[in-house]
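Escalation from tier 1.

The customer reports that the assembly of four entities below gives different structure tokens on two consecutive runs. Tier 1 could not reproduce it. I'm attaching the input and our single run for tier 2 to review.
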Amino acid sequence: MIDKSVASVSDAVAGIEDGSTVMIGGFGRAGQPVELIDALIATGAKDLTIVNNNAGNGDTGLAALLAAGQVRKIVCSFPRQSDSWVFDGLYRDGKVELELVPQGNLAERIRAAGAGIGAFYTPTGVGTQLADGKEIREIDGRAYALEYPLRADYALVSGYRADRWGNVVYRETARNFGPIMAAAATTSIVQVDRVVELGSLDPEHVVTPGIYVDRVVAVGDRAWIADGEFVGGVDIEGRPLQTEEDAR
Amino acid sequence: MIDKSVASVSDAVAGIEDGSTVMIGGFGRAGQPVELIDALIATGAKDLTIVNNNAGNGDTGLAALLAAGQVRKIVCSFPRQSDSWVFDGLYRDGKVELELVPQGNLAERIRAAGAGIGAFYTPTGVGTQLADGKEIREIDGRAYALEYPLRADYALVSGYRADRWGNVVYRETARNFGPIMAAAATTSIVQVDRVVELGSLDPEHVVTPGIYVDRVVAVGDRAWIADGEFVGGVDIEGRPLQTEEDAR
Amino acid sequence: MTELTRITRQDLAARIAADIPEGAFVNLGIGAPTLVANYLPEDEEIILHTENGLLGMGGAPEEGLVDPDLINAGKQPVTALKGAAYFHHADSFAMMRGGHLDVCVLGAFQVAQNGDLANWSTGAPGAIPAVGGAMDLAIGAKDVYVMTDLLTKKGEPKIVEACTYPLTGVGCVTRVYTDHAVFDVTPDGFRVREAFGSNTVAELEGLTGLSLGGE
Amino acid sequence: MTELTRITRQDLAARIAADIPEGAFVNLGIGAPTLVANYLPEDEEIILHTENGLLGMGGAPEEGLVDPDLINAGKQPVTALKGAAYFHHADSFAMMRGGHLDVCVLGAFQVAQNGDLANWSTGAPGAIPAVGGAMDLAIGAKDVYVMTDLLTKKGEPKIVEACTYPLTGVGCVTRVYTDHAVFDVTPDGFRVREAFGSNTVAELEGLTGLSLGGE
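Tier 1 run:
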């Protein structure tokens, strides 16, 4: 019997070593695998290269990993945000390296890694600083820059439901980078609210097939869902919503 | 109000002119938009370039379009099948041109057209006749061939359900080339069993978002489905299944 | 020189909204352009795209229904309309890069008369660069509309002969909506499409130092 | 020369099945290799991929339940297991090309000692060429197993020093399962992994004209 589910987030992140490249899903807080990141912090693995769209928000999740001094380099499209003070400080102090990639090239490079594409020509970024030094080719009268795949040793992804074969479905815009990162990493680790019985995910609706997933771990219903129903919960800044008033 | 549904298959294929490039979904009979193909035959449009995985089965659908003498060239991966006698004859008589593309390169070229990728390096076909004359590049110690996008004027696709915004879901392995062809054509035309109310397709389950679809047309439940339930219907050769015995 | 007419940010958003036809697929970027959504006609269907994986984005959620999984590119809570669709990031940017969006509306530091856009970096030393999806939108949408004040706070024109800030995209902007006037980007440079209030082409030329093709 | 041991097509399928570990993701191509599915252990979970967009493919449907929308790469009716997933063609071939399949099993006209595979065309003049997904499978799977008779009907060996038929893939085959023996493709050429019945390495060398590394 295939069973990719593991008992704890610490089991899920076992083996991540110093110097690993780790893709972390999420766009801002949506789809950020906070419990897996916390487990990664607990391993103490350092000199990590992190691939994420952003560079952490507030003091939790990816920001906490940065604050812990475990990150040598971050590959992302949009580090500077109103609440990215942890990254901002480290970057200004020269303590973290930044590779800035336009978001669509970031997504396509990750996709290419999973899809076995050796390189691709993209129109995005041509004529800008972010294509400096890249090979440019004119195709059908338009200029394109050559971009290479972006691979990782590990991917940490947040899904909604998974089964023991590793099939995953996501929730709303928390899907974002999860499916392509799961396909681009040697070892892909997915946290979900619940691991469900094999056969309870409709084959028409599976977004990440189990072939891309090595480990799944249940972390319990997200705070704003109870018994599968939306109940409010936290606001976009991560503050708990206890009453309707809190939601203002 | 946006309403991409049209009343008939002849309305759906209106405007397809002599010399058009037309992508036709389907892998063998699964997902082949037979009603749209019949409507295309009725237009009499000729000198067509057809992109499909195969080159027709039996005497219906794509095979009938070929038999009608409307096809100048076919781009496909697997023309020769046990029941591809229509294509076989035309090809041997020099009446239809063939561009043979390995299936994965065919799919990826179609995907690249929809995704705005100028060209890509693929490992598939390198060192074989089908990469003859293509640019070869070594990347990270592996050889890749450069492949270009494959675009079309029209795509004819068979889905299962659509709404008036053009969102489409498919059924089982009939999904195959539909989603990528819809994205790669200037005008994409989708036949479905039923056009359903806006809001009745779950946003998590939509496979082809309406942005890729120009026209949808309801053609009625496929023969092996009644009231949404599977009832048997036709076998893989297209023969009607009236009784269980027929299904042997 | 008399004071020129300037319309408010809200009126500018409404002006842009009026140019978006029913059935269009539209991305409103982040920041000020998102105001345009408030002025789209309620009786027409215009489908909003957000780069983080949603077509058919709706407005802000009602009280108590903030859902942290459902956000826009600016990471603000939104809703999904009937007819919406979710997809992953590679699919979302394929949609943008592939030229499927009809319109995107972006902010700008500068727009050049050949349509070059600079909106992601001032190039200031020590600033932390961040680009997000701006470069994909700039080269991907069929029409790239810029929404901006005509002048910086220091009074410098933001439509220019050539950008001095780092570029976001080359020759990509099709129209610039400013508080003073609307400009089309044409093969001959900027042309005034509509001057607000009593503003004249000559006055706008005076402000920008550009030839704007006034008769 | 005495008659050599030859196992049946069915026994060969069972032999291949025995080498596929639980949890493997496997593509069985079209034709003879699909027989392997019949010999996979029923108490183990092995996940079959079909190029036309399905992981978790099951066996043939029961009578009366043939579903023309649910077919395999050979266009035969199949079923979907619990835990299955459907996807479109670009995703299916991304999965193959990206190296995610553990094993594929393919037929062959010829396999060369460097692992070159020829299985899509005899190059005969006038023949209609058809390649399908063979080239993607050949270069995509972690292990490429070939299932074939060792000799053609005319008695010519199908494992060869160099392919004379048009190639499907370069240096891609890892193991060849034949009716006479199983061969590994090694940096030193073919090596006998298992000779069936009383067959000896020397006999197999005699049949093929190759050095097979017998001690």
